[in-house]
Design a protein that fits this description.
- Chain A: It is a multi-pass membrane protein.
- Chain A: This is FtsX-like permease family protein.
- The complex is a heterodimer of chains A (about 600) and B (about 250).
- Chain A is about 70% helix and about 5% strand.
- Chain A has 3 domains: about 190 residues, no CATH class; about 260 residues, no CATH class; about 160 residues, no CATH class.
- In chain A, the strands form 2 sheets. Chain A has a 5-stranded mixed β-sheet with strand order 1-7-2-3-6. A two-stranded antiparallel sheet of chain A has the order 4-5.
- Chain B is α/β, with parallel strands linked by helices and about 250 residues long.
- In chain B, strands 6-7-8-3-9-10 form a 6-stranded mixed β-sheet, with helices on both faces.
- In chain B, helix 3 packs across helix 4 and helix 5 runs parallel beside helix 6.
- The longest helix of chain B is centred in the C-terminal third of the chain and has 17 residues.
- Chain B is globular, with a radius of gyration of 18 Å.
- Classes of the chains: A alpha+beta (about 600), B alpha/beta (about 250).
- The interface between A and B is medium-sized, with 32 and 37 residues.
Chain lengths: ~600, ~250
């Protein structure tokens, strides 16, 4: 009988349960996807750029597990907030505590297990889709990446079911220990905490100092090596927490004294925030860190994606070289935005290739010059023909103009008269250097394809920096992919954490908004009031997260050497990320409106 | 009593719950009465008699099936959406049994809320709050949160919030229901003072004869209909109390 009643309770709130189930399912799916990568050693080895890749993945896995624990805690508190009243009522009607305990335990565990199973299946499908997406759209080819991977399934199942058993036990203890009356009147009481200005000031200063240390550690990653990350993580977490505690409350309290606070629902908004933010300090800290990690990961990922073409410029004096160009190739070349172009005649004989000195004097061959040190600057220089006759034959780009399947031909620069007499197969080669490799990539890709079709020899060294770019895309693919992946995973988790924490406060707010409704507060005013309140709760960790990222990107400077920079073009990445974050905000807002606004108020 | 002098005027009011093809329940049947300006009127009835339903109709929290409700010249039954909210905010002051104070706000902020909704300037607001706080002797409680107040203090803060914007009528739904007898008497004395000094009309819904004995006129409601009416005239309160008890004795038979 009691089981039936409990089921009826769930049916009445099926939409809320659906939200909860969906959230948990997504979380399990994301975890599976990550575990799929992190436990797949063959994949990591094949795609690792740095030797510390498995360390990075291990670190990521630990973070994700911690976040999952926090996430399930919040989801569980949301579940509990929905059920407290019902179970209190059952107990008041005389249900035995033991029986209630069993029900709660089962309910939590069943919900968790269902979410885990669906989550793993979803994770499988998403992995499959993701692999396809990366292949098609980003041009990444990740070796050994498969969607179905048994160790990942086991890891996900063990972690989730284990956590849900813990959550069930927690709920069991919580419900059987709380008095019936407390369960029935579980609406939060506003606890007004005392503000001690001196302590707050100390906490604030300490917070700033800790943040400073953390940011410095990230910038000094070259000196501190791997110690920088844990150091920064601890100091930034503590610093953010202390800073939130000290400043946000003070700020709200000082706002409450202004005339602005006395307009419309502002005083109510500030009052709500005042006791919420205090409750939320820990959660806001976690969310701000997650926000930073998600945004940071995506920024770095897209940074690689965008900046590899710039990097590629360092790897060759010309973008592509075309031999005996056809009319079709000429049309493609005409489409390019060319910075420098030159055409030379070759005579190939045996292991040698001959060039005409007069031609090279008239149209000198551009060479790549790089400065050494931290800030690598590249420039293109030409030399007098006399000098070039000595240096040219050792220049790798110049050598690359004539290769066969067996070897690079040895170049020899001879006078015009000698060149005319020289026997051998005559070939013309045109070198092209474009202004913007990224812009012209599609055209160059076609050119390179034509070149490969026309000449049977592996054209690897014949097509300049474009070839390096192609190789690097594969090379850096792992990092780029991990950036995108972790970013999206963190974002999904953090936003859901925030969502559940906020939603679990909704039942208590129901009563408050009912009061406001009775007092004659307009429906629109209540709606916008809620939008502001939740908006601010989303905004605080967002702002802190952005600051964290701006400092945290320092960490990637050694990995993204000039002309690449982790800060280049971050605007668009930020915009996309904030867009996704805003979508989560809107979902939370709509759910909150639905739970909280008095039914009579809807026209 | 003339119609022009009435703050509340109810004519042919009916409320039926349930849709036409379902089992219906008629909570209110053909209710007619008026409350004059400055009058202190009580509505008495047992649980389920329809008195709270009636109050909800008057305060626009619920819509009548039939009939007219006119409050301070506004035909409440014709209002929609924002008009309804604005009407409640401007014309009606509410005191509830469970106080309905917002626990995240201080007493001062709670009291100021109706003025804030109107967009009153903060200077005028401060003045109004302090005036009403003096009247209700809660000036020293303004900075406290509801959790720090006793039941009687809470209800006085709620009363202050209900009258701070000078509504045309103050409605109380069992305002003494959750108070001990001393606090209840204090609150009723305060309501009487407000009624007399500020000439504010008061409509009190209660099932408690003691609370009702503070009224000038009492309407008895039973099974959704007004059964009888009692006037205090010039009797003192305790004599009126006896009369109410007698009336209840016969009325509930």
């Amino acid at each position: 009988m009691l089981g039936k009643l409990a089921l009826a309770g769930i049916k009445n709130r099926r939409r809320d349960y659906l939200v909860l189930l969906a959230g948990l399912t997504m979380s399990a799916a994301i975890f599976y996807m990550f575990a799929n990568l992190a436990t797949n050693t063959a994949f990591i080895k094949a795609n690792a750029v740095t030797s510390s890749a498995s360390l990075i993945f291990g670190f990521g896995a630990v973070l994700l597990i911690l976040i999952t624990i926090v996430y399930i805690m919040y989801a569980n508190s949301f579940l509990l907030s929905m059920r407290r009243h019902d179970y209190g009522l059952f107990m008041m009607l005389g249900a035995k505590r033991k029986r209630i305990g069993e029900l709660v335990f089962l309910e939590t565990l069943i919900l968790g297990t269902v979410a885990t199973v669906i989550g793993i299946v979803l994770g499988l499908l998403m992995s499959k889709f993701l692999v396809g997406f990366l292949l098609d759209n980003l041009g990444l080819h990740l070796a050994h990446l498969v969607a179905f991977y048994v160790p990942a399934i086991i890891a996900t199942a063990v972690l989730y079911v284990g956590l849900f058993i813990l959550a069930s036990l927690f709920n069991l203890v919580h419900l059987t220990r709380t008095t019936v009356l407390k369960l029935l009147h579980s609406d939060e009481q506003a606890n007004q905490t005392q503000v001690k200005p001196f302590r707050q000031a100390v906490a604030g200063v300490l917070g700033l100092i800790l943040l400073g240390i953390g940011y410095w550690a990230l910038a000094a990653i070259k000196v501190l090596q791997t110690a920088a990350i844990p150091l920064a993580l601890v100091t930034i977490t503590l610093g953010t927490y202390l800073l939130f505690r000290a400043t946000v409350l003070m700020f709200i309290r000082s706002l409450r004294k202004t005339a602005w606070a006395k307009k419309h629902l502002n005083s109510f908004l500030l009052g709500q925030l005042n006791f919420r933010v205090h409750n939320y300090t820990r959660m806001l800290t976690i969310v701000s860190l997650l926000f930073a990690m998600a945004l940071g990961a995506i920024t770095v990922g897209s940074g690689y994606h965008r900046q590899l073409p710039m990097m590629a410029g360092n790897f060759g004096a010309y973008t592509i070289a075309v031999h005996d160009k056809t009319a079709q190739e000429q049309r493609l070349i005409d489409r390019l935005d060319i910075r420098h172009q030159a055409t030379y005649t070759q005579k190939r004989q045996g292991k040698m290739v001959y060039y005409n000195a007069a031609e090279l004097a008239k149209e000198p061959f551009e060479q790549l010059k790089m400065t050494t040190g931290d800030n690598v600057k590249t420039s293109y220089v030409t030399e007098s023909i006399k000098k070039f006759q000595k240096t040219g034959p050792t220049d790798i780009d110049f050598l690359g103009l004539a290769t066969t399947s067996q070897r690079m031909l040895t170049p020899k620069i001879v006078s015009a008269s000698q060149f005319a007499k020289q026997s051998g197969k005559t070939t013309t080669v045109t070198t092209v250097r474009v202004k913007d490799l990224q812009r012209d990539t599609p055209t160059i890709k076609k050119l390179a394809k034509l070149e490969r079709q026309r000449f049977s020899q592996p054209a690897e060294m014949t097509i300049g920096s474009y070839q390096s770019y192609e190789m690097m895309t594969g090379f850096f693919g792992g990092l780029e992919f991990m950036g995108y992946f972790l970013g999206i995973a963190f974002l999904a988790m953090l936003a859901s954490c925030l969502m559940f924490k906020i939603l679990s406060g909704a039942p208590g707010d129901q009563r408050r908004y009912r009061m406001l409704y009775k007092m004659g507060v307009r429906y629109q005013l209540m709606r916008s009031g809620i939008a502001k309140e939740i908006g601010i709760l989303f905004l605080i960790p967002g702002i802190m997260g952005i600051i964290d990222v701006l400092f945290g990107l320092q960490m990637f400077k050694p990995l993204m050497q000039s002309p690449m920079s982790p800060y280049l073009g971050i605007g668009s990445t930020f915009a996309i990320f904030l867009g996704l974050y805003a979508i989560y905000y809107l979902i939370t807002l709509v759910l909150y409106w639905r739970i909280v606004l008095p039914k009579g108020a809807v026209k | 009593m003339t119609t022009t002098n009435a703050v509340v005027s109810v004519a042919g009011l009916e409320k039926t719950y349930g849709k036409a093809n379902e089992r219906q329940y008629q909570a209110l049947k053909d209710i007619n009465f008026q409350v004059a300006k400055g009058e202190f009127v009580g509505i008495m009835g047992a649980s389920g008699s329809g008195k709270t339903t009636l109050l909800n109709m008057l305060s626009t929290l619920d819509t009548p099936t039939k009939g007219d409700v006119i409050v301070n010249g506004h035909d409440v039954t014709k209002m929609r959406g924002n008009q309804l909210a604005d009407f409640r905010a401007e014309e009606v002051g509410f005191i509830f049994q469970d106080f309905n104070l917002l626990e995240s706000l201080t007493a001062e902020e709670n009291i100021g809320l109706p003025l804030a909704l109107k967009g009153t300037s903060s200077r005028v607001m401060d003045q109004a709050i302090h005036e009403v706080a003096e009247t209700l002797s809660i000036a020293d409680l303004l900075q406290k949160y509801p959790a720090e107040l006793s039941g009687g203090q809470k209800q006085r803060v709620a009363a202050a919030r209900a009258i701070v914007h000078h509504p045309s009528i103050l409605m109380g739904d069992e305002p003494t229901g959750a108070l001990d007898s001393t606090s209840a008497r204090e609150l009723l004395d305060l309501l009487t003072t407000i009624n007399q000094k500020q000439a504010m009309s008061v409509l009190l819904v209660t099932h408690d004869p003691f609370s009702a004995s503070f009224c000038q006129r009492i309407l008895f409601i039973k099974d959704g209909q007004i059964g009888s009416e009692l006037r205090r005239e010039n009797q003192d309160r305790s004599a009126f109390y006896q009369e109410i008890l007698n009336e209840l004795g016969t009325f509930n038979e």
